[in-house]
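Weekly structure sync, notes
Attendees: PL, DS, HV (note-taker this week)

Item 1: Lipocalin-like domain-containing protein
DS walked through the input record. Source organism listed as Flavobacterium crocinum. Sequence as pasted into the shared doc:
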Amino acid sequence: MKTTRLLLVSALSLGLFAASCSSDDNEGETIVPIQGKYNLRQTGTINADGQEVLIDALANQAGCSLDYLDLRLSNAAVYGDYSGSNCSLVETTGTYVRSHNDLTLTIGGVTTTSDIMNLTNKELKIKDKTTGVITVFSR
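Item 1 (cont.): predicted structure, written out as tokens:
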């Protein structure tokens, strides 16, 4: 009987603990880690009707590997650009800071701040706060 009572109390305690750890404090922030290497896929904007209009990223040169953004655990950011007839890789380094659903990138001396529109294990979608340009990356 004591064992049953102990198991019941343990189960209730675990349930209460799990319920108290809600995501209300995240204010819509995703909890997926942002660190990782992302391939540039699409860019676009939101049209007058409020619809996203995305096209394949023009920065990606045909026949080359996809350009990428590598966000490292150390808050270092590396942008990889494949270009030229031999698809040579040029990497530009910088830093990034994530604050809730904002991502601030400083790469090559240029700083941009974007809203994180979507962050999953497979996709990072950001919207530049100044220009409104949407950029979609995939892992």
